[in-house]
Amino acid sequence: MAVAGVPGTNRGGCGLESPEGNRATAPAAVLSPECEELYNPGMQEPPLRELRSSIGFDDRDAANVRSLGGLATPAIPALVDRFYQQLMQQERTRAIFTGRERQIQRLRDALTPWLREVFHRVDEKTYHEKRRRIASAHVRAGVPQYCLVAGMELIYQELDRRARDAGIPDAAEKLQSLRAQTACDRAGGHA
Fold first, then answer.
1. Helix 100-119 to helix 59-67 angle, to the nearest 10 degrees?
2. For residue 190, what pLDDT band results from cuts at 50, 70 and 90?
3. N- or C-end of the chain: fewer Cβ atoms within 10 A?
4. CATH entry 3.40.50.1400 includes domain 46-187
């Protein structure tokens, strides 16, 4: 997606390239030319506390997210199905999945525990390190940010519908906490 005044944003995806110029998933890859001017390598990721503070995520939000676990956990298979059905309806998104069914199944198998961990995490440091690695993998693969945002929006909408149907108290506040949590996750914050 082109962003007015931001060079290189009209080239359909920001990813990493190997020194030979091919898209790469290896850690030795470097930012592709269309992304170099958008990335400041001297800027460190903020510590998790700072990231959470900047968006107002606190202990109450963490409790709100955990409280959605009973609603969300049985819905995870349907959420994952909807996530990939929606992504596969768009031509640009389908082009990312070069391994087709096998690749999609592997990704589905990764999204399922990711969603469980959102609601039932045990170790904060491990949780956020996994999120950082996932974010890095998305960048290396050249997954456009809009895919992640759109996919998460589908999950929020489905959980919102289920929460309203179940009459969960303070559902809107709890879902807002979930949005804040996944914003931290997407930013790749770490403890």
1. 120
2. very low
3. N
4. no
